Amino acid sequence: MAKQTVEQKLAILSDAAKYDASCASSGSTKRDSRDGKGLGSNEGSGICHAYAPDGRCISLLKILMTNFCIYDCSYCINRASSNVTRARFSVDEVVKLTIEFYRRNYIEGLFLSSGVIRSPDATMSDMVQIARKLRHEENFRGYIHLKTIPDAAPELIAEAGLLADRLSINVELPTDAAVQQYAPEKKPEQIRKAMADFRLRKEVSKDKSHTGKRPPRFAPAGQSTQMIIGADGSNDAAILGQSTRLYSSYKLKRVYYSAFSPISDSSSKLPLIRPPLQREHRLYQADWLLRFYDFQLDEITSVTADGNLDLEVDPKLAWALVHREVFPLDVNRATREMLLRVPGFGVKTVNRILSTRCHRALRYEDLIRMGASMKKARSFITAGGWSPGGLTDSLDLRARFAPPPEQLTLF
Amino acid sequence: MHRAVMPPIGTAQAWRDAARQFLAAGIPPEAILWGDTTTAPDLFGEVRPVRPAGHVTVPRSFISMASTVVWHSDPERFARLYAFLWRLKDAPHLMTDRGDADLSRLRSMEKNVHRCQHKMKAFVRFREIGVEDAPRRSFAAWFEPTYHTVEPTADFFVRRFSDMDWRIFTPDVSAVFENGSLSFREGQEKPALPEDASEQLWITYFQNIFNPARLMVKAMQSEMPKKYWKNMPEAAFIPQMIAEAPARARAMAEAAPSLPPARMAQVQAQLAAHQSAWEGPKDALAKDIAACTRCPLHCNATQAVPGEGPMDADLMVVGEQPGDQEDLSGRPFVGPAGQLFDKIAGQAGLERHKTFVTNAVKHFKFTPRGKRRLHQSPNGSEIQHCRWWLDAEIAQVRPKLLLGMGATAAEGLTGRRAGILSRRGTVEQTASGTPILLTLHPSYLLRLPDPKAKADATAQFRDDLAMAVKLLD
């Protein structure tokens, strides 16, 4: 076989990396290179340098170091038994690509993942070497996200955490049983243990020593994980239950949900399926309600009988539609907690309502100017000059929001 | 009538200086004509010098808003800002009234400028222009911003690209960074920039990171509007990528894997329950505990926490279950309750390092509440399943005395959890005849809100530990 060019390798290894949903570059320490001695900055909030036609943000150079893999996870394009073309970047090739892309303002940094070659330790140590070279030889101050290998040696993980902004390990599937079925070489308890170690390391790195000196920061942008949605039979209650446990147990920054999409070259045939994108979207909405709107898991998942989210309307609206007894709320009196439950009101809108309410009573037009989505909110609130009348309890309220029933098309 | 003409470079400072003077001199908005160098000179506007008088104070949030809004392209922007500033003079709280129509308008202009700045940070594409072997590499870009955002955004590029020279040309204002210093020039026509080999690699990356199975063109366009496309090398390939996506996705789907159905886990658990006692080589116990799936608790906990201590200990202390810290570290008695136990054990003369400590249940049971995990007591069946491991540990260590702390330990050791408060301080026996001293669980002491009750319970606990020491003598 002829030697592959960097461009050919890049095509193979970025194609192999696209199933990872995360491309975030936010939440790390602020730093810059104003001193002229390095390259790059981090502003706290991330920047999406481009968007692909799949609607996903491209913020980082997201590649695999290699797509050779000794594992055989059935949902993965890079599994050992797949016939996909294989490639492997050298350490220097990844470093050069990252730096040259960064200098042209294409990216915020690097998201490096890898298939497992030779052994978990050997793979992890190559990845750490790339990060080390970027930080210490190229003085790179942009963002680095490393996907860690669960059973790699602790000292490698420790070094990775000092070099990278974020580390992540994928839990892959919502239940242990599913992981054992589809990813036989991966051990859910080992993945959890790795996330627990991460949290302990991070907590230790926050303690000052007796001299008052702070130890170097460990992965300042925290850890994240990803779950594949729709490959196994788990319902949304099981998926969200898993993520609330992960958030509370290991202080994860984010749980990413990735709609299972068909991959080329599979072991056997599966009926043609479209990735459940709408379901993925609803899961993210529910995830947000759990983290920022003080909703409890059972409130969100008890709306439907089968424990799945309503695909037609968003989870907050779905909750409001079955709890109409608490509405309409008076925006001039309701508490913050209750205002957050109004469909169409976001955290920003609620803050604006509260700060303006100190000075004067709010009218309907004020809410429009404050950025509320009144199409949704108006059925659930009263304000100066507005009362929903019978709208709140009307039978066709749901139908006003749900998409119209699809007409059958002629074949 | 006064006239204020704002220059294209240094606009923010110029507006602030002018507005400060007008305000100090008490000149109302209707007496000022604001414009930039592109607006035609007003025939009736007569320029009168303003005599500054004293200080004026404005809310800081207004200054930050104004220094963004001045970069908008609306010709009315300077006048709108001053008119609002005039109102603000007597009612500073207006800054927090987001329902106010004037403020709302200014805030939305501010938002537009911020968005334009953000897009500039994201979509400027440099090409290398420097010669090889030059001491500093140099790059250049052509960009067409919607508003006058080059000047307020240039510092971002300084923070990021200080070790190289760069210039961003636009039709409006151009920014030049050379040898560490930044300057602004007038705008210009699009220059011819040399081809850059890295651009082809970038396009390759863009085409391959895209997943054709999840086409969402609208989502892409709302974040990357078409007006920016002409200056982004990768964007030329978007129409082709969209057109080919359905066929590629179909090809991928036709070759998708089949996933076997979930089963097995229950069968394994049932099989495990058929044995009567754990029997294995001595050093395999901890490993077998770690792999336990006898009850569903293993699904949510991080790891099983086996007992710890000398294998020939006279005393075995049995707690309830691992807590948050124990679950993370994999070691028993390291959390707050464990630390309290260590402290009181020291006071009671109990030699901690000669003691084997373990828990009645090996996995942490909890319920997530926001960002924390709330402890939940294990139920009868979980305790029953975990007796398997507790019995195996007792059989290995063969202690002279067992110290059961709390109701769960009592249930794990004696099969009965009721009445721990009346049973504490008494000695019972296991089926094989090992004496069990029952006492309270240290986390119970931590939870008691009443200081007096807490002190009493702590004294009782200390007495029980002292009694254990005495029983072993």
Q: Can you describe this structure?
A:
The complex is a heterodimer of chains A (411) and B (473). Chain A folds into two domains: 6-173 and 184-224, TIM Barrel (Alpha-Beta Barrel); 317-401, no CATH class. With 411 residues, chain A is of the alpha/beta class. The longest helix of chain A is centred in the first third of the chain and has 18 residues, at 120-137. In chain A, strand 1 (50-51) and strand 2 form a beta hairpin. In chain A, 36% of the residues lie in helices and 9% in strands. In chain A, helix 2 (91-103) crosses helix 3 and helix 3 (120-137) packs parallel to helix 4. Chain A has 15 helices and ten strands. Chain B is an alpha/beta fold and 473 residues long. Chain B has four domains: 2-120, no CATH class; 124-186, no CATH class; 197-242, no CATH class; 281-472, Uracil-DNA glycosylase-like domain (Uracil-DNA Glycosylase, subunit E, 3-Layer(aba) Sandwich), CATH 3.40.470. Chain B contains 17 helices and 14 strands. The interface between A and B is large, with 103 and 95 residues.
